[in-house]
Amino acid sequence: MRIDTGIPLEVALHWDTADIQPVGRLAYRDRIAYLQYDESFLTAGLELSPVRHSVNRHRKLTHL
Fold first, then answer.
1. Which of 1, 5, 19, 53 could form a disulfide with 15 if both were Cys (CB 3.0 to 4.6 A apart)?
2. CA 58 to CA 24: how far, in whole Å?
3. What is the separation of C-alpha 2 from the centre of its chain, rounded to a whole number of angstroms?
4. Max Cα-Cα span within the chain
5. DSSP E strands: which ranges in the chain?
6. 26 near 9, Cβ under 8 Å?
7. Residue 64 confidence (pLDDT)
């Protein structure tokens, strides 16, 4: 999948058709991917990858 520069992509976990957990917004700039977590994801206490990318409000992810 190609992500256009500067255009955020909404990210969510689809547990089933009725249960969707927003994760945040993913954007790509200067060959670096940035993920801004949704408040509801932070409150849920979930982690996408707790070893490599622990949750904080504005996380810069370089190895997706």
1. 19
2. 10
3. 16
4. 36
5. 9-16, 19-29, 32-37, 58-61
6. yes
7. 47
pLDDT tens-digit profile, the chain (64 residues): 676 766 788 999 999 889 999 999 888 778 787 888 888 988 888 877 756 666 654 454 544 4
Sign of CA dihedral 20, 58, 60, 8: positive
Interstrand relation of 19-29 and 32-37 (parallel, antiparallel or unpaired): antiparallel
Q: How many residues belong to the chain? A: 64
- Tokens 């058709």 map to which residue? 17
Check if the beta carbon of residue 3 is closer than 8 Å to that of residue 25.
Answer: no
Q: Is 35 exposed, middle or buried (0-12, 13-18, 19+ CB in 10 A)?
A: buried
